[in-house]
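In this supplementary section we document a worked example of the pipeline. Step one takes a protein sequence of length 186 as its only input; no multiple sequence alignment statistics are reported here. Step two produces a three-dimensional model, which step three serialises into structure tokens for compact storage. The input and output of this example are shown verbatim.
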Amino acid sequence: MHDVTLPMLWLPIVLSAVIVLIGSSLIWMALKYENVEWRRIEGEDNLREAVRKLNLAVPGQYVFPHMMGQGADLAAKKMEEGPVGLLLLKKPGKFSMGSSLFQMFIFYLVVGVFAGYVASHALSSGTDYLRVFQIVGPVAFVAHGFALVPEAVWFGRTWKSVCKGLVSALILGCLTAGTFGWLWPR
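The serialised model returned by step three reads:
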């Protein structure tokens, strides 16, 4: 009988989001193994000026060469000639660390809610720490990391970057699972 309800898991959901936010911040700021995947563009100011002159809608996401509405031969030629890429534009203005951290906290709460939902249907109160960890961990790992794979397949993210992101996702999944195991209803 599964007697654990989602509202009963409010504390592990919230606390895991806090712990994961701290953990992800430490990964990014202290370990820095993912940061090195974001390289500087030599001639960055020239690129910024060229993009500015295009008068693109901001924020926006763009792909080049754009394949729609072109003949297959022309599209193939442009792909072979290169460059091929994506351009993500954020709204200009002052960067807000607080807003970004808040949005990530909300994401981590959502991960906790779904991990808790799965666990509440799979486990009963009094389930031991390791069993809770075994259910919550994979759910949180998948939620934190698997969206990176299609980015490599379709959008050019390097597999090295994906692998580093998956390592981070595994750490964050373990933090989530550990928190749930610790605070699982007895």
